[in-house]
Amino acid sequence: MPNLTIRLRDIAKSFGPIKAVDGLDLDVAEGTCVGLLGPNGAGKSTTMKVLTAQAIADRGEIDVLGYKLPEQSKSARAEMGVVPQLDNLDTTLTVEQNLVVFTYLYRVPRGERRAAVERALEMASLGDRRDTRVDKLSGGMRRRLLISRALVHRPQLVLMDEPTVGLDPQVRQEIWALIDSLRAEGASILMSTHYIEEAERLADTVTIMSHGKVVASGPPAQLVAEHAGREAIEIYGPPAKLAEAEAAAIAAGLRTRRTGTSIAVLRLDSANGDAPEGERRPANLEDVFVLLTGEEIA
Questions:
Q1: Dihedrals phi, psi of 223, to nearest 5 degrees
Q2: Which listed residue, of 89, 149, 190, 282, carries a Cα 20 to 30 Å from 291's Cα?
Q3: Could you count the other beta carbons within 10 Å of the beta carbon of residue 84?
Q4: Would you say 183 and 34 are in contact if contact means Cβ atoms under 8 Å apart?
Q5: Structural contact between residues 251 and 60, judged by C-beta atoms closer than 8 angstroms
Q6: For residue 113, how far is the Cα from the chain centroid?
Q7: Helix, strand, or coil here: 33?
Q8: Confidence (pTM)
Q9: In 3D, which of 6, 7, 11, 105 has the Cα closest to residue 55?
Q10: CA dihedral defined by 48, 161, 15, 212, rounded to 10 degrees?
Q11: What is the dotted CATH code of the domain comprising 1-79+157-215?
């Protein structure tokens, strides 16, 4: 069995009558990237807050880096890096000053602080912006700084809550490259995201949540094969045609999903040659997401 940097068992957290997390089990093995995927209100951000003791679970067992939470949360936090969903950089300070502050907060030894800051600047590709005040940076630069700030003390575990939220596709690719380099160095990553392609591209395993519960977990390719099959057919047309195609597919024992102006017919490997006419494509993680959560992507 691989060593686990995170082990959650039967975690529950409610806010009044709302069950934000309900019976969550989650493992993050050492040196892997796990993606938390789910629609709004699925429980992803609450899970992150429980792991940093910003929220205290109502029940369950929480082990992070060998520490029991919430009792030993201070020790666990010292050895992890946290990239919040909301930008909380100090806009009155420069890029370099923001990093220096966190070398103190993370208790980086005095003799190692300069090297830690330089390493973080290089990782974020912000060396030429070291003296720029944060409020003068673009959104992508600020997000890279948030990530590098969380890594300034070389943490064993990094929690990323929606690391590329609100960024355009080009900047998102830059962040993906940064996360790839982090994983290549052997760090463990737990990343919550709304973006299907982000989870498929970066995560070794994906946990899909809906209404506070885990509905599926495993490597992306395995989840696709299990729930959607290898191939899908996309059928386009007026609503009446789509309804007819959907009914025929369901009657034939095939799974379907709506995709706005089309119907996707899945699990064609079990169609026995009776597949409907349409545009063939590989099944993907988005198909699985919609099948299991009943939600369109936010």
A1: -65, -40
A2: 190
A3: 18
A4: no
A5: no
A6: 30
A7: strand
A8: 0.90
A9: 11
A10: -80
A11: 3.40.50.300
CA distance 36 to 196: 10
Residue 119 tokens, joined: 């390493």
The confidence score (pLDDT) of residue 169 equals: 86
Strand partners, 257: 264
Residue 97: Cβ-neighbour burial (10 angstroms; 0-12, 13-18, 19+):
middle
d(CA 298, CA 289): 12
- How many residues are present in the chain? 298
pLDDT of res. 55: 95
Distance between CA atoms of residues 248 and 250, nearest Å: 6
* Tokens at 291, concatenated: 């099948």
Q: What is the mean pLDDT of each run of 10 residues along the chain (298 residues)?
A: 89 96 96 94 94 96 96 94 94 98 96 96 94 95 93 94 86 86 88 92 95 96 94 91 89 84 86 77 93 70
- Check the CA dihedral 268-204-143-69 and report its sign: positive
Q: Where are the domains of the chain?
A: 1-79+157-215, 88-155, 229-282
Q: Is 214 within 8 Å of 66 (Cβ atoms)?
A: no
Structure letter (DSSP) for residue 167: -
* Longest distance between any two alpha carbons in the chain, whole Å: 71
List phi, psi (to 5°) of 95.
-55, -50
Contact yes or no for 285/224 (Cβ under 8 A): yes
The answer to whether residues 151 and 102 touch, using CB atoms and an 8 Å cutoff, is no
List of E strands, 65-183:
67-68, 80-83, 157-161
Pull the structure tokens for residue 235.
Answer: 């059928």
